[in-house]
Amino acid sequence: MRRLIAKGDPAQVPLAERAIDEYWEATLPGARKSGLRVIQQDVFAQLSAVIGDRRTFAEAVNSYIEKKLRE
C-alpha cells in the first residue's frame, strides 16, 4: 500500500482495492477487521505525510477500508 500511495496514481485505486479484497478473503473471519485496522493505521500515517494526488489516493484507500470494516 505504501508504494501505491507514494505513486499517487488514481488509476491504481482498483489495484489497492483488489489487494484489500484479497487480504479480506485470505484472512480468517475473526482477524479480518483487526488486520484491516492495522493497515488503516499505516494509511493514516501516510495521509499525514503526503499531499496532492498522493493524499487523494490515501483518502480513497482509507474510504475503501472503512467500507470493508462496515461489512
What does this structure look like?
There is one protein chain. With 71 residues, the protein is mostly helical. Helix content is 82%, strand content 0%. The chain has helices at 2-7, 13-26, 29-47, 52-70. Helix 2 (13-26) runs parallel beside helix 4 and helix 3 (29-47) runs antiparallel to helix 4.
Beta-strand portion reads: under 5%
- Rg measurement, Å: 12 Å
Query: Fraction of residues in helices?
Result: over 70%
User: How are helices and strands ordered from N to C?
Assistant: HHHH
CA-to-CA gap between the ends?
21 Å
Number of helices: 4
Biggest beta sheet attributes: none
Structural class category: mainly alpha
The whole-number mean of residue pLDDT values reads 94
* Uncertain stretches of 5 or more adjacent residues: none
Task: Say how many strands there are.
Answer: 0
Globally, the shape reads globular
Keywords:
globular, mainly alpha, single chain, 71 residues
Helices and strands, with pairings:
Layout: H1 2-7, H2 13-26, H3 29-47, H4 52-70
The gist of it:
This protein has 71 residues and is mainly α. Helix content is 82%, strand content 0%.
